[in-house]
Specification:
With 508 residues, this protein is of the alpha/beta class. It has helices spanning 14-23, 38-43, 45-63, 78-89, 91-100, 163-166, 186-197, 217-227, 279-282, 323-338, 369-374, 390-394, 427-438, 457-460, 469-472, 482-486; strands spanning 2-4, 6-9, 28-31, 105-108, 111-116, 119-123, 130-136, 139-141, 145-147, 178-182, 201-206, 232-235, 237-245, 248-255, 261-266, 268-271, 275-277, 310-312, 353-356, 362-366, 379-385, 406-412, 417-423. β5 and β6 (119-123) form a beta hairpin. The longest helix has 19 residues, at 45-63. The protein is globular, with a radius of gyration of 25 Å.
């Protein structure tokens, strides 16, 4: 039986770890059962943003009349929009080709299943044929999550859409005339924005009392109010049955409070009702890896599972399902797998940022007000509307109008920032500076007491304050324009600094 030094399951952020293993001269295997590049590149955040931006432009053009400019949208070139989107997804083929020529690497294109202690077989997803059977000294599980399909009677006969097949063989030749979206979270909100802006009659069906429940209640409410200008939003409504009627896909929904039932008809149904772990596909129990009651793989602060030499990163650990968080975990994992045992790094999720690229846009980092109180913090809360500043007014926001976005800050009694939340234009850009601040530390010990006037400025601060290190250690919302500034430091080159070259001798 073949034995590998390192087996990586999943070709998203897992590739970062695989590359380091190969650089160390390890014999490696990669297992991937879909397109190379993972969810973000092939069926998630990157292609969806190519669709979001034209939708943003349409809504901005409509908003422009508030400041005295009227645009006529003459034509929406869906074919060009689609072509640009597929150009991103098709980068997967280049990754695939690049990996096929790497020495010391075997690529298995199928589903990996643990069969025993550190043993795995891979089978072809199409025909079930076995593609390989091997042992691994070390495993990194980075195989992500998939769409949760709620128990709706008859849904299996409806040929419905998920984010997986939407960015595959179900991609529409033109925007649908009408669309039912089951779910009210991040994916639902982005698709609702995209298609409502493109002229589709959208109906959201959400069984909870509000949209995007990860956000502050005020933000959920603001999004709902603005969504209702462009689509039908049904809250506290549960989809219970799906069937055909009048050549239309039909969903029977039941009100969670009154029990009243009604039918909704549309050309298509999109299910965006949450995500479930792929751990069940891997049969992780056969190698002794523990999962929680919802199927997410349990990890400790070093991203280790309960099984020695098996690590887990990304969506499959159920912690925060964003590519920038998976990349951050990959960096921690690289240190902990390849570095000295006594220099292991632990994860810190206190400043995980994200954005929901809907309209209005939402930015989020840290705790909500309810979470801060629940965790025992004594807090201040600050709110500020766009309309109250000159630039906000210039952009067409006026006090009391329902599109007037806002910022909400959660701060503890020592003035430490616990959370920052924004809804409105450029929310992702406005929230990112708070991420850097939250990662820069907030208390500093002065060297030894002297008259503060005598202290040079640099000694009044923390060693990292004012340096780029807090940016370096922060997650940067992906995909967003923050990456242009946040990642610029990766291109630092000495101009008039003399670099002394030392000879390094590495032992592997």
């Amino acid at each position: 039986m073949e034995t590998y030094d390192l087996v990586v399951i999943g070709s998203g952020a897992g590739l970062n770890i695989l590359n380091v293993g190969l650089q160390f001269g390890m014999k490696c295997a990669l297992v991937e059962n879909t397109k190379m590049g993972g969810t973000c590149l092939t069926r998630g955040c990157i292609p969806s943003k190519v669709l979001v931006h034209p939708a943003d432009l349409i809504r901005e053009a409509q908003h422009a009349k508030k400041v005295g400019v009227k645009f006529n949208i003459e034509n929406i070139d869906w074919d060009l929009i689609a072509e640009r989107m597929w150009s991103q997804i098709n980068e997967s083929k280049e990754i695939d080709h690049g990996l096929s020529n790497v020495p010391n690497l075997d690529v298995y294109k199928g589903v990996g299943e643990f069969t025993g202690d550190y043993e795995m077989k891979v089978r072809d997803t199409k025909n079930g044929k076995e593609l390989g059977y091997y042992k691994g000294e070390r495993f990194v599980i980075a195989s992500g999550a998939r769409s949760f399909i709620p128990p709706i009677e008859g849904i299996e006969n409806m040929d419905y859409i998920t984010n997986e097949n939407f960015f595959g063989d179900k991609f529409p030749k033109k925007p649908w005339k009408s669309l039912i979206i089951i779910g009210g979270g991040v994916i639902a909100a982005e698709f609702a924005h995209i298609f409502s802006a493109l002229g589709t009659e959208v109906t959201i069906v959400e069984m909870l009392p509000r949209l995007v429940v990860t956000e502050e209640p005020e933000i959920s409410r603001h999004l709902e109010i603005n969504f209702r200008n462009h689509m039908t939003v049904l809250l506290n409504e549960k989809a219970i049955k799906a069937y055909w009627k009048k050549k239309m896909k039909t969903v029977l929904v039941k009100n969670m409070q009154t029990g009243e039932e009604k039918e909704i008809l549309a050309e298509e149904i999109l299910i965006a009702a949450g995500r479930i772990s792929n751990a069940d596909l891997l049969k992780v129990e056969n190698t002794g890896v523990e999962t929680d009651e919802r199927g997410w793989i349990k990890t400790n602060k070093y991203l280790e599972t309960n099984k020695p030499n098996i690590w887990c990163i990304g969506d499959i650990n159920g912690l925060y399902q964003f590519r920038h968080k998976a990349n951050y975990e990959a960096e921690i994992c690289i240190n902990n797998i390849f570095g000295p045992e006594d220099q292991k790094r632990s994860v810190d999720y206190s400043a995980v940022p994200w954005a929901i690229f809907t309209y209005p846009q939402i930015g989020h980092v840290g705790m909500t007000q309810a979470e801060a109180i629940e965790k025992g913090h004594e807090i201040y809360v600050a709110m500020k509307n766009y309309s109250t500043i000159a630039k906000g007014f210039a952009m067409g926001f006026e006090t009391g109008q329902k599109d007037d976005g806002f910022v909400k800050l959660i701060v503890d009694k020592s003035y430490r920032i616990l959370g920052a939340h924004v809804i409105g234009p450029h929310a992702a850009l406005l929230v990112q500076p708070f991420v850097y601040l939250m990662n820069s530390g907030y208390t500093c010990t002065l060297p030894e007491y002297r008259d503060e006037r005598d202290l040079p400025k640099v000694e009044k601060a923390c060693p990292e304050a004012g340096s780029f290190m807090p940016i370096y250690h922060s997650m940067v919302i992906h995909p967003s324009l923050n990456e242009v500034t946040g990642w610029a430091i990766g291109n630092l080159k000495p101009i008039n600094i003399k670099i002394e070259h030392h000879e390094h001798h590495h032992e592997h």
